[in-house]
Amino acid sequence: MTPFIVNPFRFSAASWEFEEDFTSYASQGAADAVWVPVVTGTVTNAVDISNDYLKLISPASGTGYYGSNTRALTATDDAAFVLRYKLHWISDNQVGGCSADYMTGLFNSNSSSGTNVTQDYIGVVNQVQAGYAKYVTAAGNSASPVDGGNFKSNFTTVIPTAGDDRYFETIRTSSTTFTVQIFSDSGYSASLEAKSDSCDSTITDLDFTGIKGQTCTTNAAQSYYIDDVQFANGVTVAP
Ligand SMILES: [Ca+2]
Ligand SMILES: [Ca+2]
Question: Domains along the chain?
Answer without folding.
Answer: 8-233 (2.60.120.200)
